[in-house]
Here is the input.
Amino acid sequence: MEYVFHFGAVFAAFDRIAAGAWLTLTLSVSAMVFGLVIGFSCAVLAVFGGRIAAGLVRVYVEAIRNTPFLIQLFLIYFGLPSLGVTLEPVQAALIGMSVNCGAYATEIIRAGVLAIPHGQIEAARALALRTPQIVRHVVLRPALRVAYPALTSQFVLVMLGSSVVSTISAEELTATGHVLETETFRPFEVYMVVTAIYVAMAFGLKALFAGLHRSFLAADEGGRR
Amino acid sequence: MIRQFGPTEIMFMLQAARWTVLLSLVAYLGGGALGLVLAVLRVSAWRPARLFAAGWIALFQSIPLLMLLFLVFFGLALVGRDQNPYVAVTIALSAYAGAYFGEIWRGAVQAIAPGQWEASRALGLRYLAIFRLIVLPQALRIAIPPTVGFMVQVVKNTSLASIIGFAELTQAAQFVNNLTFRPIPVYLVAAAIYFVLCFPLTWLSGRLERRLLGRLGTPVAPG
Here is the structure.
């Protein structure tokens, strides 16, 4: 059996695909930013916040890391309305992605904080710096520098994982693919194009993170040693 | 009539969880075999093989698993097969897991200092003997914790099979939710079942990481 590929109908809808890809990027970058903030705060709490805070962070991280993103998304999108909080799909998607990304970022940044030599933090204490000052001036940069490679690979995974939010009908790239599939009856061509865009965005993000590393962190490492 | 969410429904979900376990095992087998091939190609002495494996890994680590599922699912029809979710999920999960396993194992083999290869060659050992006696025992120690860590990702990602109509735990939860309209308890029970499946692996991975790598003093790459 010979199958003839027809991409015409898919490319005719390119503006809608581009809009979907844009929402995917916007959602992903927002989730990365929120995830970074959550991750850094939780990592600092876990290391400097005492036993109770460390325990709570542990529960958050393990609960998220050991359950599927899809189930987390369903709990937020279908569960919260029964508690009286109604969310738009995109809002639910952003919350789910940020909470999920935050848990992984916490683990990664915590390892970065723990990699800072103890003597540096003790020296800061001896200089009478308070914990917030130590976090700001002694911990922040080295911890993020150590965490950078793992953190940015996690960010790429966040972007790829965002395709799952199509299940709660957030109109991002994958959901746009669903719509086009039912309109064109060309599912394979539609998902080929959509996949190609994801691959391009993943490679683009990786190149961007590598470039940021070269222009900021690498110079930083050279200058400080 | 709206059903109550009770023990019958929980049993139904637990029974569906067997498919989640089975799918994970199938992905470990398929992905493990593929990963092994990719890792061997990736560290081989022949440049085209290295480039092929590197390209394969980079490509499959850049495709969302959901897209991989759709492409295989709809692609089966193009090659004249039925749109069988079992086959589609097996192929897609194996291709996905294989790329990650391959990359983890390549990293483990390449973490062994090149000086050890050179020293072994100087002592008159052949390639396979060096690999079996010198490199593999050390590489295994490095590889096991991230491998176990990634196995958790596979269990969780079997949930995506529900989207193409595979009746595993997540789809059972959706089904029960449609009957009972109690999303919070239903999905919390589903999350709890996944947690029970995943947490032992996460715990084991962390413990092995401290035990096996602590002594080697190798910097630990998060899995």
